[in-house]
Design brief:
Layout (H helix, E strand, L loop, with lengths): L4 E6 L4 E8 L3 E9 L1 H5 L6 H23 L8 E7 L3 H18 L3 E5 H12 L7 E6 L4 E8 L2 E7 L5 H11 L6 H9 L23 H16 L6 H26 L4 E5 L6 H14 L2 E3 L3 H4 L3 H13 L20
Parallel strand pairs: 1-4, 4-5, 6-9, 9-10
Antiparallel strand pairs: 1-2, 2-3, 6-7, 7-8
């Protein structure tokens, strides 16, 4: 098969995924097995249960990814795998599988940072996308504004100082009785709500692109307590819409301010929160206002997946970044250290 073929493996949280990508941009297969339903009963991901599911899914998922792509392991040129950040137990399952395949087949191994993967999902959607650009990586564990200076070269311009955006969504969803995961639940409820119902605070820092979502979380919880103490009904949809308006608003404001300050003409969305309909709408409006190009992955590539890891591994390999068999799981690892 023509072109460089990369097998990507992702197991950092509750999705076990493998994918095959050609030349970093052409998706040949993408297989995802999720244990989300198992974790819903606990209101969040249980690391031990997630690890067990990764062990159950990893081999069938890899086999199916190769089969769907109509390639064999011998056809694969590079094996990429998420090594962090994430849940150590899950990361180790993916790492051991990737190492075993790389050693047995004599293929180069490339360790990929999870956020690097999310950013690279956009190379699959937009074949002509090239650095430099500004990206917002927003998920359950991260809210970063990143200057992508080149393939594999990142500068973090802003980050959350407390909760990540997705984490704030989960906590407010739990308080409203909407369950887990909070992002899709609040997004759905907000479509039938009034975003002007309440003005929740958007924290801004002087001379910084950083975020803080603890203030808005506290404001929403205090509002709920006030309603309950007064015996008033809780307008769930309106609260969701107002909460979402504030969170998405500050994510959008800070990202486009960074893009303007650094003279970037392209803005990119990435991460699980990038699937949020209101955030995508705000980014589209801001891009049109400032005359910038906006790129965003399809919703399936916003979630954790092997395709984004395969794409990132390809560009890392082309830059000469190859891992050895001492590659280990890292629960916390800065993107800038890549």
């Amino acid at each position: 098969m023509d072109g460089l073929i990369t097998l990507g493996i992702e197991s950092s949280c509750d999705e076990t995924s493998a994918a095959v990508v050609r030349n970093g941009r052409e998706l040949l297969s993408n297989v995802i097995a999720s244990s989300l339903e198992l974790h819903k009963a606990y209101g969040g991901v249980v690391p031990e249960l997630a690890s067990r599911k990764h062990l159950e899914f990893i081999v069938p998922v890899i086999d199916k990814a190769l089969k769907d792509a109509k390639v064999s392991l011998e056809d694969v040129d590079v094996i990429g795998v998420t090594f962090g950040p994430g849940l150590v137990g899950g990361l180790l399952v993916g790492l051991m599988a990737a190492k075993g395949l790389a050693y047995a087949a004599g293929k180069p191994l490339v360790g990929v940072h999870h956020l690097e993967g999310h950013i690279s999902a956009n190379f699959l959607e937009s074949p002509d996308l090239e650095p430099p650009f500004i990206t917002l990586v927003a998920s359950g564990g991260h809210s970063h504004i990143v200057l992508v200076e080149d393939y594999g070269k990142y500068k973090i311009l802003g980050r959350t100082r407390d909760d990540a955006a997705g984490e704030a969504y989960d906590k407010i969803s739990r308080a409203l009785g909407l369950g887990y995961p909070g992002g899709p639940a609040i997004d759905k409820a907000a479509k039938n709500g009034d975003p002007s119902y309440a003005v929740f605070p958007k924290t801004r820092f002087r001379s910084s692109y950083d975020f803080s979502f603890s203030g808005i979380k506290t404001a929403v919880l205090n509002h709920l307590n006030s309603l309950k103490m007064a015996g008033a009904s809780v307008p769930v949809n309106d609260i969701c819409a107002s909460f979402q308006e504030a969170v998405c608003g500050i994510l959008c404001e800070n990202t486009f301010k960074a893009a303007r300050d650094f003279g970037m003409k392209t803005v990119v969305l990435a991460g699980g929160v990038a699937a949020n309909s209101r955030l995508r709408e705000m980014f589209e409006q801001a891009a049109a206002k400032y005359g910038m190009r906006l790129e965003k992955p399809s919703r399936v590539l916003c979630t954790d997946n092997g395709a984004m890891i395969a794409s990132a591994a390809y560009f890392a390999y082309k830059k000469g970044r190859i891992s050895d068999m001492t590659l280990n799981a890292e629960a916390s690892w800065s993107l800038e250290d890549m």
